[in-house]
Amino acid sequence: MGNRRSAIAAAAFIGSAWLYIHDRQLETRRVIMRHPRLPAGFDGVKILHLSDLHHKTFGEMNGNLISSCEACKPDLIFFTGDVISRNESRDFFDAKLFLFEKLCAVAPVYFIKGNHEQDNIVNGEYICRHLKKIGVTVLENESVFIERNGDKVVLTGLVPDIECYHKGHRFNDLKPITRSYLDEILPPCRRDMFNILLAHNPLGFEGYEGWGADLIFSGHVHGGIIRLPLLGGILSPERRFFPKYSKGTYFSGEAKMQVTSGLGKLRINNRSEIVLCTLRRK
Question: What's the CATH fold of domain 27-280?
Answer without folding.
Answer: Purple Acid Phosphatase; chain A, domain 2 (3.60.21)
